């Protein structure tokens, strides 16, 4: 299916004149060094953007004004604006699944109008948000009690991928924010994602089922890991509190209310969303809003939605040269497709943002790690980036060696002006947060400038050490400063990253909103599951060698030979002993 917003039929972005011009322009850029580019004040002034309360410095990218002009031209020739509009207008830009892509509707103001297939979906969004507010208020104020009459002060959110990473990112970001701390006093929010029973044991460790509410989050309600974890935790609840506990202790977030009901959760206690919200883009829907409102209260989480909405409007309306997601997307594209840097590091100098990189890893890599364009034509270039990251300064003592002297990895530094927590020890040179930020400022310049042999010689470094101590510099980075790390700014940050990923996908002309690449492994796991059951229950109808290669057969057999703790007992559920510890 050729979509109206795609490039001309059969035309790859790499065939556009602007792409060719950028290819040629690489030679010019190869002759420059950031050391010199950073001395050009006019250039620097044009590459620092202050908008929506954020300070963004792109001066340490290996670009000149001409590079930016060529990138804007590429955006024009790729119909970037048309594709952004198509997304906001609810066109089915996820063509392989024939769906609209409207996570922006999940954070729309009540009075906005966003149409999907001829229908304004904003009232639907707010119907669910109002239900979340009512329910979370009831749980938080003790009106909704557990089956034994106790208040539910613990929440375990079961979900994986997009039904986990976004909510975890936001929860981690808010845990130590003073307002959020006040709003969540005496409450606990835990996540259970991995099907590994160790994760179950850790998620439930120390929790009293009488005081625990479980939120099962799955867009499809078929994801194997989530459903096994949901059955496991349901069993944990009912084995202690009886079958009637499910009604009071389990709720669901899903687009598949039929399966929610079949699982045994009353659809009244289910919070819906829609197929036009992709899993990895779903944190602003009930997927994130329900567990986070239970923890922090709906009013605070509304600020998170407002922050994301602020960037949606910015993305939709600002011209390319002042549009943060567009600038970030274009610069990443330049680094990946023209300078050949396949990875990027996301480096927040803020412990609260420690789960930003894992979240963006999914959003970016599941969105843009594609091999064909939107028309199914195999691409002659690679798309997507390998994302990784850790908060500063921890990363400095881990992988920064490689990014300073090994491979070139474009870095994204994120700093905060006003920390969530302040510590100043009398007599120290700077406060603890200032100390952190000293590193934030220093690293970007260390990467850009490096250190030359001449500088080392003048520092009296012995000759034999000079090659080891040279820093080539000229390593690109961008720096973003947020005024604070609050629900609002976390919403902004999330939306900036979501949209810059879309920008890259729109220009590469791929479908950033499907994820067929995750299917094959799931199918093979299911085949192994059949073999595993047959071997463990000793019915031996199917043997490990049936349908597997030599290597896999041998590995499965080796595994089956080993000692396992659980022997598939008949008739009763079995838990690791520690899972029950909290309720002895
Ligand atoms: O919310 P669901 O349907 O359980 O899916 C969980 C995750 O699984 C995937 O489909 C594949 O990993 C993700 O896109 C999604 O976020």
Walk me through what this model shows.
The chain is α/β, with parallel strands linked by helices and 584 residues long. The chain has three domains: 17-89 and 318-514, Rossmann fold (3-Layer(aba) Sandwich); 106-303, Rossmann fold; 517-581, no CATH class. It has helices at residues 17-30, 34-37, 41-46, 65-77, 80-88, 122-141, 165-174, 178-183, 197-204, 224-241, 245-249, 257-263, 286-296, 298-317, 324-338, 356-368, 400-405, 432-449, 453-458, 466-469, 487-508, 519-536, 550-561, and strands at 48-51, 54-57, 115-116, 119-120, 154-158, 188-192, 212-217, 250-254, 270-272, 343-348, 386-388, 411-418, 477-484. The longest helix is centred in the C-terminal third of the chain and has 22 residues, at 487-508. The site of 6-O-phosphono-beta-D-fructofuranose has 14 residues, from loops.
